[in-house]
Amino acid sequence: MRAYHALWPVTTQCRVLDVSTSGYYAWLKRPLSKHGQRDCVLGDRIVALHRAAREVYGRPRIQADLRDENIFTSDKRVARLMRERHIQGASRRKGFMTTVRDKEARPAPDLVHRQFTASEPNKLWVADITYVPTWSGFLFLAVVLDVFSRRIVGWSMANHMRADLVVDALNMAIHNRKPENVIHHSDQGSQYTSIAFSKRCEASGVRTSMGSVGDCYDNAMCESFNAILECGCSSSIGSERSAKRHSRSSISSRASITCAAATPRLATSRRRNSSGA
Fold this sequence. Notes:
The chain folds into two domains: about 1-85, no CATH class; about 125-265, Ribonuclease H-like superfamily/Ribonuclease H (Nucleotidyltransferase, domain 5), CATH 3.30.420.10. By secondary structure, the chain is of the alpha/beta class. Strands 3-2-1-4-5 form a five-stranded mixed β-sheet, with helices on both faces. The chain starts with 9 loop residues before the first helix and ends in an 11-residue tail after the last helix. It is built from ten helices and five strands; from the N terminus they run αααααβββαβαβααα.
């Protein structure tokens, strides 16, 4: 009723809703209940946690952060308070196929077997390709991630998905880390099974490893990282429609900053996985 004061008189609203005018005014002057006061405090804390997570976290991860602060409440209450404050987690856009397998190419064996662990840096790298929609077309991003530190050690951006894209990302990783006998794990995309990429790996002493076809779990670490990166970029750039209004050059600059600065922060222990742990 209070929201419609400018449209209809209070007496008319009370008559339609079959409530007394005196009761309505008494409700207006009534102090906030203890439960309402707790909701205000909890809602303010939820907003602070959401902003600290760069407005990426949804209800499960926000609730996990609350538990870390010894604040235990139901998921429905957290969802209600988030809804009342018009905040929500970042979600991924509709998928775009970036992995096209070359049926005539011979893929490398799987040396990882979903064991994404490393005892020290530059022992295991995982790689993948993702994309950002722009007004002038798609901008493709290839990344190389060090499993030990969960940091991006190499990346490359272009308006195509040729083998040069992943070779340039590998070149940056090799230049930055100078590894010895590192394993490079990826999917079976034609870029990673190309002759140019294979020769670069052989020349640098990089051991190639590839997961099975059509199984995202075989490259789950980099897939998960790209999902977080996409959500982080979408929250900073805006919706897909507004992102398309940006040119490739402007988004390329933002993606470079994200890979160089924001990406290491996303990969630290501060970031929760999809289960909220």
